Amino acid sequence: MIGEDRADDDDDDTLTVKEKETDRWRCISHIFFSAASKNPHKIAVVHASGGAQQLRTTGTITNTITIPNSSSTQSPSLIYHYHGDCCFTYSHLLAAVDSLSRRLRSFLPDAPQPNPITITTDKRTPRILGIYMPPSVEYIVSVLSVLSCGEAFLPLDPSWPKHRVRSLVASSNLHLIISCASPFGINSKSANWLAEECAPCPVMWFSLEEGEGVGKPADLAWPCECESGTERLFCYLMYTSGSTGKPKGVCGTEQGLLNRFWWMQDLCSLHGEELLLFKTSVGFIDHLQEFLSAILTGCTLFIPPLDVLKENVFSLVDFIQAYSIDRLTAVPSLMRAILPTLKGLYEMQIPSSLKLLVLSGETLSLLLWEMLSKILPRTTILNLYGSTEVSGDCTYFDCKRLSMILESESLTSVPIGIPITNCDAVLVGDGDLPNHGEIYVAGLCNSVGYYIDSKFVTLDNVKLPSVYTSCSSDNENEGQLYFRTGDFATRLRGGDLVFLGRKDRSIKCNGQRISLEEIEDTLREHPDVVDAAVICKGQGENMLLVAFIILKEGGSSEGFRSWMVEKLPLPMVPNRFNFTESFPMTSSGKVDYELLAGSTFLAEHVQYKIADVGSSNLLQVIKKVFCNTLMVEKVSDDDDFFCIGGNSIAAAHVAHDLGVDMRLLYCFPSPSKLYRILLERKGSFDLDVRKYANLEMYPEKSKGVILHSFQTPSPPKAESGVRLLKTPHGDNENHAGVSKRMKMDSKVNVTPEGHWSVNGFPWNSNSIQMSCSFSRCNRVMFEGEYRVDDVHQATCSEVHRTRTASMQELWKVHLGSCVDASPLIVFKGRDVYLFIGSHSHEFLCVNARSGSVQWKLKLEGRVECSAAIIGDFSQVVVGCYKGKIYFIDSSNGNILWSFQTSSEVKSQLVVDIPRQLIWCGSHDHNLYALDYKNHCCVYKLPCGGSIYGSPVIDEVYNTLYVASTSGRMTAISVKVLPFKILWLHELEVPVFGSLAIDSATGRIVCCLVDGHVLVFGSSGSIIWKYKISGNIFAGACISSALPSQVLICSRNGSVYSFELEKGNILWKYDVGDPITTSAYVDEHLCLTSDTSLSSGRLVCVCSSSGRMHLIRVDLDVHGETQPLKLDVEEFARLDLQGDVFSSPVMIGGRIFVGCRDDFVHCIHVIL
């Protein structure tokens, strides 16, 4: 890191009261020139590309060098920047503004004059110049140059789709677009397309290297010194989503920007010594104050690369820490996202440099405020309210006052406070509720109007009678024009406003206003669409946009998301697309959105999706979906979904078919209960499951456990009337079909005696001599540099092949409730351990040889995901349904640390040894990378949907692949931080199973729930795909013991073997019962024959009904010139006393699997 000296410079940087009063009448250009001229050698802007990465990779600040940072040599202080950063002084900025202003002035006389706006007689209509750049020093210079020329600027965000940029260019009648050929922070984006696709609007290319000389342009007066009649009407144009279905450009004034700036200066002054961050997208109004507050006061502004922030939201914390940032402006959802990392720093007693946190753009919840106040105890937190029409902000609330207010007021969110200086807010509502109503705003903050389709439209302003009470004691509403915001609020006894919601169909997403009408209009442009309607479900980070579409006859329902991504910014792209034949209508002929979002239309919509239902009755629809999912003939109104064979994967299938939140099924598991709650919430698609989050599906069982071995008790009898799952192969032997409703009464661990070796390959010998772990889908991890194939060769035992075999239980351990998680088997020295959790919240370490429990602990939520063990085998990691990921000492069960996600964790965790990371997906739609050495989260990626299957890593190309229930598959380069997205596919069909990768070719296998099997190359190209007849809920299995094969288990009861190279089916075996788990190939047992060259392998498959199948696959090799001959047949079977949704692990003739009889079982094969 390189250090920069800076001085207090009180004589130069701190404005006197008289100077402040004078500056308040100056324009932005004049104030900037004054501040910059006082500090020409001071660092003004830093392109901060190196600091966060160095801090993340080294954890320390190194290579400090002192460089003068101001004209003063008194009281130096340190400004941090790093190798790789690029610094610009105020002298550089002055020179660049002068240079670009001269170029603009030489161009503008030849440009056509804009059409005058006639709403006022003493101001002129400015030309509008577009600026197509991300946050950067070039962007700042471009804004200042346009303002100094007396014109107006329009920010154009390079992250927007080209279609939207073209639309805004045409709508605003741009005279010129200013762009940079190599913009900072978005190297993957090129602006070269502008000149061709935005014609006839010319493009001016600008580089900071063009700047020469320092000083005020001599041939142009400051805009604030212009003669009457030449003052511009507005100085910027910012587009926001419009309720008419088209985006509208807000014409903002310079006085509005300056009023907001001076108000903040009076409240929390900047003195030129503070370090600020410019990280907000240029398409969002808050970005203006982010950089203006710095350059107008002589502060230093740090700009992180836009791509880095978008790809890894947690890097924001690194920038704050690396550059000692004093102030931050953010939306609440962003702070909620980085909260775990901030909490980690707080727990490690690393102080935060933040002195002021400004939150705006969304409702600030009390819970978030409480958490932020705790981990940022020395930071002032302001909650602001406003919109683009009111220069960003018009009211504020200092959260220091909140504790006192909560003593007398009952609130659910933080107040938005009182008006800022020179602004007023009035509540207009019914006379019966004088302290409730729509917010009307007046004052210097208000813009002058809109640009819509190249036409100017005035604001929705009104004059109010004096009967309405002003929220500001300094303002009188008589004679003022008030802007109708469309937002509703209530006024507390102390005068503070509390935001309630909106009156129209606009929503706020990440601080940006979005009109649902605009999304609908865009959908109607699709060639296959007749009509479209869009609704919003939930709020904040749980917000979902749902589109209902009527297709033309013969129209395709494929590819809608990909098409929309090319048209609208990502926050405006619907999360779900539903297709129907008609919309419910009101008596006036308009779409009935309340009914559209309600359960009645939902039932009809589900009937349309599953055409064989034959009834529009919602209860019958629910029961039909239950039957189809569980593959049973009949379900009664009061049957518990989870007691008749349902598990979390089946629940996801039901939720997908019904179009409801899956968590509802856990709270209301019977058809009648689900039916009643859907009707109760009729008229609102926002089914609030959070208030039911603490309900447990199954009562707590006895915590007493006997840790000794006993003889196997007699199996219990099934309850009378228990429904058996259908099995095409006749009766289930030994009650194999008994569902989860049948529980074992015994709570002991059962271990038969005398089974410590299996047919000559003793399991208690040291045949596996290095530390290693085995988990579902043949995932193996070794300590050291052993190659996987070599290890398997060294530890594989050859056994003479027999015609058939049998299986016998060695031991089983009770876990208190259903065991749906798959086991993790760990060899460590002479010891072998099994780690597994259950629905009872218990997580155990078991001696895998004897079945004795080594330790156990109770977690906060039930466990359904497989555990993982870190690279040095010292910690085992597991997630739970409360969203927490635990790092546990593998030797004694002590919890070392934990990480909190926002929702359930069901994805198997993946260990990344080279980078010392744990990768894990969550139901909150995010993929997390957790640094298990430094106990922090280093990366978070939104994946569009919940992540049930585990990711995979290609260590050759340092690439991670992940898929979600939205159908999005993403490839991420993880070679070095910041990680970057390489490519993504929107498959538009949910992915529930884990991905698999062939280490030899780097090909990735992805199974879609609708039965499609896709194999991708490392570049993202689809090598081959195949559609099987059943649904797929489990991940593919690739094993070195069956070379060039990938095994897929289907819910139709079949196991498929595909040739990895071309996708040909090599063999198929039908077990007769649904399969929702993955297969496992025993890589440590090889069946040989004296009479042939064939060798056999055993594949273990468990069906949902509880039947365990061993399939023998013989490979006859007759030389390179003859094709491989495969012989597949059943080798053995065993029925467990409960359903199985746990994928087995098989090592050297021993099988480990969880079961819904509340036990984890160890089965051995008798040959």
From TrEMBL:
**All residue ranges annotated as the Pyrrolo-quinoline quinone repeat domain in the record:** 815-1164
Annotated localization: Cytoplasm
**Name by which UniProt lists this protein:** Acyl-activating enzyme 19
The AMP-dependent synthetase/ligase domain, residue ranges: 129-451
| CDD domains on file | A_NRPS
Q: Cross-referenced PANTHER family, in alphabetical order?
A: BETA-ALANINE-ACTIVATING ENZYME
User: Per UniProt, which keywords does this protein have?
Assistant: Cytoplasm
What Pfam families does this protein map onto? Answer: AMP-binding, AMP-binding_C, Beta-prop_ACSF4
Query: Which terms does the UniProt entry file under GO BP?
Result: amino acid activation for nonribosomal peptide biosynthetic process
What cellular component GO annotations does this protein have?
A: cytoplasm
* Residue span(s) of domain AMP-binding enzyme C-terminal: 518-590
For the keyword DNA-binding, the answer is no
